[in-house]
Design brief:
The chain has helices at about 5-10, 20-30, 35-55, 65-70. By secondary structure, it is mainly alpha-helical. The chain has one domain.
Length: about 90
């Protein structure tokens, strides 16, 4: 659920085939409802984004280091939900 730039920073030479990775994950765990898995992942990612936005500015580690590296609202590399929301934006 990260953008292509973040994937490159993580060592991928090309962005991964996200649909295939989701399919393999679901098959491995015996999950049949891909939409439910994506929704749960979106909720978890939003909680992580909110945690960075809340704890980062307080200096709490490791969240402060994420803010220092630029993982805040709307910046490159910010975790993004599939519908484009980022940095704690709900909608």
């Amino acid at each position: 659920m990260r953008n292509d730039g973040h994937c490159h920073e993580g060592g991928f030479s090309e962005p991964p085939d996200r649909a295939d990775r989701l399919r393999v994950l679901c098959e491995a765990y015996g999950w049949s409802d891909l939409r439910q898995v994506v929704e749960a992942a979106k909720e978890f990612l939003q909680e992580d984004i909110d945690r960075i936005a809340t704890l980062g500015p307080t200096g709490a580690k490791p969240w402060a280091s994420f803010v220092e590296r630029g993982l805040r609202r709307g910046q490159s590399g910010t975790p993004r939900l599939p519908d484009g929301r980022a940095g704690g934006c709900r909608g």
